Amino acid sequence: MKPGSILTGLLCLLCVTAAFAADPIAIKFSHVVAADTPKGKAADRFAELAREKTKGRVEVTVYPNSTLFKDKEEMEALQLGSVQMLAPSLAKFGPLGVKEFEVFDLPYLFDDYAQLHKVTQGPVGKALLDKLADKGVLGLAYWDNGFKVMSANKPLREVKDFRGQKMRIQSSKVLDAQMRALGASPQVMAFSEVYQALQTGVVDGTENPPSNLYTQKMHEVQKYVTLSDHGYLGYAVIVNKAFWDGLPPDVRTALEAAMVEATDYANEIARQENEDALAKVKTSGKSELITLTPEQKAAWKKALIKVHRQMEDRIGKGLIQSIYEATGCDCGKL
Ligand code: LMR
Predict the structure, then answer these.
(1) What is the pTM of this model?
(2) How far is CA 187 from CA 176, 182, 216, in A?
(3) Above pLDDT 70, what percent of the chain?
């Protein structure tokens, strides 16, 4: 063998060794809910799939339960690049300057997951994710959670029952308008602070899908849970755009494939996770579950549907209309 080819061979060996020895690309994925929730499980699944599909070149570390950042901090951290991936609820994009996501908070906008998916898996959802690019953020997917219940220490059956109740909300002006339309007093608060605020009486009640209520033990400090399904809560999975664009193309492609699978998984488990959580709240015996009569439901809807029109200036009448068209909702005529 010629000395030249021995040298080339040695160099190749060195490259391979260096490639194996190189540290994996680190992705920090921060979120605020428990690991045992639709979002928590999907984040963990994404981490597994990312490792598999990149053959260990990417290591995703998931930080659940606000252990790395709380609600407001996490958005700033993503833009600064101190965390690479988040899945904030769609109600939390106002502070980033993309208030259109608050459209998902409109009460009674979706009757069920099938209607919601017409938006999140269609052109309207895609156009919304595209709006994030200006903020240095890339929207990768929508992950479901579910339909919300209302909880408090008094039974919330009639609209008048909300009068004077201090209700914790996420930082969405639509949710603010929703609580005001019911006669309640909304208080924006980070998710990580809700349990204590309920326990100490800083707020009287709140809303969330059952999976969040149960895993944060909110039902232990709320006497009543009304099965109202008055609105939806779900997520956009987002990454720091400069980080994502800077990934080696083959790694990015593998991560995109991991995200597609993790998204299917998230959206498959969400409904069951919420049903299971509700069943656990029931068997715990700590809160009483309230089912509304058709008349009570109709009264809630009548009080709340006007929020759609009130929010047109903030969210955009055209966007609201395009969702009505996608879902076939007759909300505009109500
Ligand atoms: C909340 O703050 O109530 C929710 O957004 C938490 C979450 O991420 O599901």
Answers:
(1) 0.93
(2) 8, 14, 18
(3) 93
